[in-house]
Design brief:
This protein is mainly alpha-helical and about 270 residues long. The chain has helices at about 5-10, 15-40, 45-60, 65-90, 95-115, 120-125, 135-155, 155-165, 165-170, 175-200, 205-215, 220-245, 250-270.
Length: about 270
């Protein structure tokens, strides 16, 4: 199938169009948040929260409630809890993430095994499926993505300050804990709505890959962020297209596109040095 013909055919399907719109917004927000999370060594929080989201969605499906309606507040609470545990407990951040994520997966699998008829839905949440985005979900996903983008841009300068020097930020009167909590909440929301396409196992790649790829060449914060956004959107588009043309899982196609660009940027950075 010709590449351009495949793209035109792809947009003729409403479910793929919904996936492109929702996924593009999620990729945009994840890339912005990812730069700060990677620099603050919080990047694995996305992986932990996706496991919490899986457990919450499993409970939601078993109780015949809208999975997103239950998962978003649960994952937000988990994000705040992870932040508090890593700061005020003897349990370090990575250990806290492992503790909560493994427990959430266990809860999800147990609830699924005790209920009937949810296996197919849970598989789509675990591995991702563009078919998982319904017409009802698209309104919630677009609204939440736009809200995340608005809040991030509104608080950009304060988030920039706490990213590089929390002590200096406190000295200038910035409420560091408030903005760290906000960052955790925004990450939680993006993780939940992104799980519909990428799946529990791969959603954290949207946070990690674009930021790390940009840092192979650029060092300025704004340049890294801008490049991260472009890379994320381009890789998402090509990943979705490859998924349609070659019949590979959507999440895997997007991650492979990000991996390819990461290797190219790494090579370019090496040659540049």
């Amino acid at each position: 199938m010709n590449f351009l013909t495949g793209i035109s055919e792809m947009f003729s399907y409403s479910f793929l169009t919904r996936g492109m719109i929702v996924g593009g917004l999620v990729a945009l927000c994840a890339s912005l948040l990812g730069v700060t999370l990677v620099l603050k060594r919080y990047s694995m929080i996305g992986d932990g929260l996706s496991h919490v989201g899986f457990g919450a969605m499993a409970v939601g499906l078993a109780c015949n409630t809208a999975p997103l309606t239950l998962a978003i507040p649960v994952v937000i609470i988990a994000a705040i809890l992870l932040l508090r545990i890593s700061e005020n407990s003897k349990i370090k951040g990575d250990a806290a993430i492992g503790l909560i994520s493994s427990s959430s997966i266990a809860i999800g699998i147990t609830v699924n095994s005790l209920s009937n008829g949810t296996n197919i839905d849970l598989n789509s949440y675990m591995f991702g499926s563009v078919l998982a985005i319904s017409k009802d979900d698209i309104t919630v996903c677009i609204t939440m993505s736009i809200l995340v983008l608005f809040l991030f841009l509104l608080c950009y300068h304060r988030i920039f300050a706490i990213t590089f020097d929390e002590t200096f930020a406190k000295a200038t009167g910035i409420r560091v804990n408030l903005y760290k909590t906000l960052l955790s909440i925004l990450t939680a929301v993006i993780i939940v709505i992104g799980m519909r396409i990428m799946g529990t196992l791969l959603i954290s790649s949207l946070i990690i890959f674009p930021a790390l790829t940009s840092m192979r060449i650029f060092k300025c914060f704004k340049a890294v962020m801008l490049c991260s956004v472009i890379i994320s959107l381009v890789c998402y588009f090509f990943g979705m297209t490859a998924s349609y043309l070659y019949e590979i899982p959507t999440g895997a196609g997007i991650v492979l596109a990000n991996l390819t660009v990461f290797l190219l940027f790494s090579l370019a950075g090496f040659l540049r040095r």
